[in-house]
Amino acid sequence: MALWTPDPTFYPSPRDAAGAPAERLAYVAAFDRSARRPDAIAVLDTDPSSSDYGTVVGWTDLPHTGDELHHFGWNACSSALCPYAPHPHVERRYLVVPGLRSSRIYILDTKDRISPEIVKVIEPEELAKRAGYSRPHTVHCGPEGLYVSALGGADGRDGPGGIAILDHQSFEVLGRWEVDRGPQYLAYDFWWHINHDVLVSSEWGTPSMIEDGVVGELLLGRKYGHKLHFWDLRKRRHVQELDLGDQHQMTLELRPAHDPTHTYGFAGVVVSVEDLSASVWTWFRENGAWQARKVIEIPAEPADPAGLPDVLKPFGAVPPLVTDIDLSVDDQRLYVSCWGTGELKQYDVSDPFEPVEIGSLPIGGITRQESHPSADGPLRGGPQMVEVSRDGRRVYVSNSLYGAWDDQFYPEGVGAWLAGIDADTFTFDERFFPHGDDFRGLRPHQVRLQGGDASSDSYCYP
Amino acid sequence: MTVAAALLLGAFHGLNPAMGWLFAVARGLQERSRVRLLASLPAIAAGHLGSVALVAVVVGVTGSLTTSTMLSMAGGVVLVGFGLWRLLSKRHFRWVGMRLSLPQLAAWSFLMSSAHGAGLMLIPVFTGLHAGHAGHAGHALSGGLGVAALHTLAMFAVAGGIALTVYEVAGLTMLRRAWFNVDRMWAAALVGAGVITLLNA
């Protein structure tokens, strides 16, 4: 049902969004690695004045098993206010939740309830038939509806991966987004500079390259993704490929500036095969061409091979493994997850070309297994999916990367935890640490905050 | 009466953020340039004029081929039908792309106005002209185009005034509360205009 005034969670500018009220609930994708029990959306209470603060207060089991929930998004966001096709009276109400392994996409209604209710299931066959894709991943609400990136092809084809468009009212798969994909084959994340009609996409690997764990020969053979792709958002055409160098394996998360007048953004690279370091790059446009510069490099830490999982024994070092990054809505702070070493880093990126590390929080890690003030002992897994509240004051970080990869890097079990962090003091919120049995045996992945967060909305006004 | 109606409807169209003032503001904000905002407004008005004038021409030409009663009946039915569809349909105008040249912006405005039935809303005015000029189809046609121009002038003035006020003083934050669901009012206005046309048939 259309509203009479705009959905109150839509904001014209990032500046307005930064003044949004604090989120009261957080939604967490949680999955069962054994694929025997259904995956679920867990709901956390994020209202500090509530007696249930920091606990799981809602839970929605999915009807199938083996989906492997991963990333998800909203049916509508602040881009509904964009001037060329405004439709601000739709509601931000539905979560669009892809199963990365099953290729199913669930639509969950969050309105007037704690535990969301499943209202529609898009079967893998529909995604395959209409768009030619499988393994849906990132979801963004944008000008043509819902954009969903997908890692794999369909009908037995491993690739190319790409982007499918879904109708944002009926949630039907409308088709493949790309008109001309140029040389792009691998897919992973994407976002845009919405006011510049530019879409950016990144690369991980095809299903066969990732679903049974990271493949050593492929990694050392530099076969995982190491490029960024720039597209014409309006004409749906590939414009430019930007190779970061094939030693920089797995260019995953993309965080463009929220201020729509800017044309820079940050991309995280998981690992360099030269020295196991991880890096963050700033992309920018100069003289009409897209370029990128390495602005953060995080070195690997030497370690006794005896204490390392098999996959790392030959190297005698723990790679930082930057698997997620997140940029605050005001574009001032960048959070970088080092899932291998077990550290969440905070950078001042007011100058996007000269990030300054201003904080680091240790938790988990392959060898450190650093604890948390509210945990009883060592923790496995590391900071992974990181989400920042719209006002930039709270950060949430969960510990699971991807089922098969969790098992390789944390073979004794990755555990399950999700930590709340005060961004100003950059310390753990001792009252916010759901962990272990709170997640009922499932592993937590992406967190989405009620009303929107730092990676959910795009804005058309500065 | 005809002039007043055309001007009032022009103001009503100019008020609607979707009809272009918001796009003009966005273009100005993007470049931090009032000049760019001001340059956008004539293009938006031109597109709007094109959309409204098209309806004026269709009504004028159809009117020269049929009786004014038939014309009003047909116009009224079209209006009520389109209004109801706008009221019940969940579909909205789709467009991707922020970086438009001024001719593209005019084309956008033409499509946006047409999709919202901006010209259709003036059908009672156009058919009224035809009834008043019985036997002089040529007069009705030129009168219709004149009405379309007057209408667009009002639209341009109101849209320009709002765009400048928002850009210079008010800011866009107020959109969050003040952006009333104009689409529903439009749908109601379209149905209303259709009923008036039918009653006058």
Automatic annotation (TrEMBL), chain A:
Pathway: Organosulfur degradation. It catalyses: methanethiol + O2 + H2O = hydrogen sulfide + formaldehyde + H2O2 + H(+). Signal peptide: none annotated. Its EC number is 1.8.3.4. One of its GO terms (molecular function) is selenium binding. SUPFAM superfamilies: 3-carboxy-cis,cis-mucoante lactonizing enzyme. It comes from the Bacteria. Belongs to the selenium-binding protein family. This is Methanethiol oxidase. It comes from Nonomuraea cavernae. The lineage of its organism: Bacteria, Bacillati, Actinomycetota, Actinomycetes, Streptosporangiales.
UniProtKB/TrEMBL annotation, chain B:
It comes from the Bacteria. Keywords: Membrane, Transmembrane, Transmembrane helix. The chain crosses the membrane at residues 6-25, 37-59, 65-85, 105-126, 146-167, 179-199. The keyword Membrane applies. This is Uncharacterized protein. The lineage of its organism: Bacteria, Bacillati, Actinomycetota, Actinomycetes, Streptosporangiales.
